[in-house]
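Researcher: Next sequence.
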Amino acid sequence: MPISVAFLGPEGTYGERAARALLDLEGHDQARLVACVGLRSVVEHVADGRCDAAVVPVENSVEGGVTASLDALWSNPQLCIRRALVLPIRHALLSSGKLDEISEVLSHPQALAQCSGWLARHVPNALQLATTSTAEAARMVKGSRFRAAIASPSLHQEGELTALAYPINDAAGNCTRFLFLQRGERRQQGDVASLAFSLHRNAPGALLEALAAVADLGLNMSRIESRPSKRELGEYVFFLDVELPDARGALLQQLTERLEPLCEHLAQFGAYPSSELTDA
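Model: Next structure:
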């Protein structure tokens, strides 16, 4: 049976492209891709067993963490990360009309933010409307002369959509890191390990004590991000990525053991390899 993989749909999203690339890296020649509406739904499809795996964006080089993915991961600590992929993001402005006719621009909120400078310069009076994905935005603007979508140039379809401008992202190095999620045993060896935790107390030095556990093991912390716990104001969940030298699994086990007494809840998502797709 081919593996089933959930991604943020519809077809044509950057998520689908990342899913196909990750499947190649994982050695899955055949797979059934399942398009979902919303990132929480993508994660829940693998968490409840409807799919064997899921691919979600977790971090963008311009806009930072993808909060919907982080919150969904914290809600499903039984999941583990098998692999990460950094995907270059090159946005196009797609429409059936002309640039000077555009009065509405549709896209995913992250894409709108990543192109905010270009939009301010070229279509300053256009209303910006959020959609569930870039591909959904492209679908919604087909046939409209006053609407445009920020999406992948691969969604250009002759006779329906024209690329009015490309690339339009403000940062030339714009890229997004995607995660390949599955259920099952966490791997202890890899280039990177990811954890999330909440602390027993909100007090001076509490977070510093947790971070000292990382420093004492000589580990480089490549990312730290906080999210509200959603229980009370001022209470946070911390997401942490650490680099594992020589892919040694013993260090991850030691870090987990040192953090556990300091944390109210600790989710360890395992160690995994990380790759970068170099072509645009």
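Model: Residues 14-26 form the longest helix (13 residues). The two ends are 32 Å apart (CA to CA).
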